[in-house]
Amino acid sequence: MKLSQLKVCLIYALKDLSSRKARTAFTILGVIVGIAAMTSLMTIGTGMKVEIEREVSELLGSSIIVRDREKSPMPIYVAYVVSKLPGVNETIPLIVGMASVNGIPTVILGVPPMRVTLYAPIIEGNSISSDLSYEALTNRETAKKLNVKVGDQVTITTQASPTPRVFTLVGIVAQGSLMQMALAGGMPVIVVSLRQAQQLLNMRGLVSMIIVRVVSPSYVDPVVTSIETYYPAVEVVTQEDVLRTVSSIINTINAVLLAIASISLIVAALGIINTMTMTVREKTREIGILKAIGAERWHIFMIFIGQATVMGIVGGLLGVTLGFLSAYGIIEHYLPRFLRIPLQIPFVVSTDVAIEGIILAIVVSAASAFLPSWKATNIRPVEALRYE
Amino acid sequence: MSEPVIKLIKVKKIYYLSKEIQVHALRGVDLEVDRGELLIIMGPSGSGKTTLLQIMGTLDKPTEGRVIVDGIDVTDFSERQLSKLRREKIGFVFQFFNLIPTLTAIENVMLPMLLAGKYTKDEALAKAKLLLTIVGLEESRWLNVPRKLSGGQQQKVAIARALANNPSYVLMDEPTGNLDVFSSVRVLDTVKWLNQFYGQTFIIVTHNPEVAEMGSRIVYIRDGKIMETPKVLLRIESLKLPEEEVKERLKAQMELLKIELKSAKRRGLSSEILDEIERKVVRTEEALREVQS
């Protein structure tokens, strides 16, 4: 096999492809769609995973969530005791419950006033000034739903305390942190002081959960062991636990999406098989001529495999480009608007994904063309030349 | 030189259509073709002449008998060896031209040279241009694809392609079967000229008596047998081409031989072959002087 002859075969293949522009274009389009689907899903999937893991670690860091195994309230002194354990920096008690604000069902959150920012940064107005003040915070979406603005008064009632209590809305918190999602889902949210939440929900001396901050990550394990020993009734959740769960969910979603995307790649492969089979059949006579003027089997094979490979390269390049573009579009426009996912998924053009996409396109194309190309080499010149 | 370019010894060809039905296309053919001959094979349809041509072109193998090309028995050659043999020793011209539709005239001529790998791309290009000049295709047509050429022009390109690798013999299957009278005359003139000035061996299968007329020898085939081989040289009327055209062709031939010489030296071919080319140069020079005087 000589390089110069290989070059002749490839030039021949290119000329042949360009003589059937429409068919070539449609076949390449099939590859483009398949590879673009793969690329964009991989980009979105990886971005989503990176972002969610980042959020979880930022949120929890070297923190531990302590809550009752049955999800019932637990005494606040647990927080006090845990704060005395060696390696514990601080403990933040939290209350989560249901309330009705101006008649609309709302998740009510009780937070120590000094630790409101743990929940979300304040983007308008002020924080709650003290544990006793009748002051509340909310996010923009809830404010819009309740039709209130900073400075307005809201009426809060709960099942435990049906007498309406009037709170002043003093500030707006940013929307879309993972904590907000975890605690409230997509529901309206109102934040009040821990003390006020305890009164509203009739949970005096009780809390829903405790966030424990340790001095450094190396203290996580000993602190978890101590808490579990002292309070067997509580459940301890670490960053690692959350990450593991979150990752496995995301990986499953990604795998399903990739499986769907691979269907389009299979369709692309069938397109190539179809095109190459037709091309070989139409070119029976031409193959006969080539053999008569002395082309060997591998020359013929390279001409046809070469065509598929060229379609794979072009389809791969364009497909990867289109994949990144559509991933960008989906991340920047579609996801925030339609899925209301409050995540800032990073858009990353990964060279790994690009190279994988192009290689996949070439391999799928060449492999699909193998059989038709092989058949082409078996055409006998005598029969081919009789073909009219 | 005494060696025949192709020799068939007791060649039989049987096609098995089914277990019971056999077709005896050739029933023991003995044939020798000498260098420089313009052999015509005539016969009615179904006489086996196409089968004979295919066996002489090594496109098909005989059921029995031997095929000897340039003194080498090629009957049991592998497919790969036969490809190489066809590339280097045999030129084909078909009734339906059979050019590669996606390639230009010049690329069609270059293709066998590039597949053989004996010439560089530049040499192949130069040679293709000269060959097209020699077969008399106007320069304005060189970059056209076959479908933009007339039948006669396509057949000229096919002849140039057949000559690309300096074959020992050129096989032609009804070369004028698809041409009008005028184009036929032009193509036949070209063949005749190549045979006379270039010493190119041609084997032409036809049932057209006009084509047969120009042959140096005619054999008849009927029912798979060669009926008579009168090894009598026919009277060849000397060719009258316009002087200018002859001059142009001879000049192209000179250039061609220079490329041949260069390529042969580069490939380190034997001095015998180099001498042979030198002889051709001298002969062409003489012919050129004759025309010019």
From TrEMBL, chain A:
Highest taxon in the source lineage: Archaea
GO MF terms, alphabetically ordered: transmembrane transporter activity
Any single Gene Ontology cellular-component annotation: plasma membrane
Keywords linked to the UniProt accession: Cell membrane, Membrane, Transmembrane, Transmembrane helix
Domain ABC3 transporter permease C-terminal residue range list: 259-380
TM segment ranges: 25-44, 255-277, 298-331, 343-371
Keyword Membrane: yes
Membrane topology: Multi-pass membrane protein
Cross-referenced InterPro entries: ABC3_permease_C, MacB_PCD, Macrolide_Exporter_MacB
Region forming the signal peptide: none
Subcellular location: Cell membrane
The MacB-like periplasmic core domain, residue ranges: 24-229
Family to which the UniProt record says this protein belongs: Belongs to the ABC-4 integral membrane protein family.
Protein name as it appears in the record: ABC transporter permease
Organism: Thermoproteota archaeon
Automatic annotation (TrEMBL), chain B:
Residues of the ABC transporter domain: 9-248
Keywords linked to the UniProt accession: ATP-binding, Nucleotide-binding, Transport
GO cellular component: membrane protein complex; plasma membrane
GO molecular function, a single term: transmembrane transporter activity
Keyword match Repeat: no
CDD domains, sorted: ABC_MJ0796_LolCDE_FtsE
UniProt-listed PROSITE patterns: ABC_TRANSPORTER_1, ABC_TRANSPORTER_2
Signal peptide limits: none
Protein name from the UniProt record: ABC transporter ATP-binding protein
Record organism: Thermoproteota archaeon
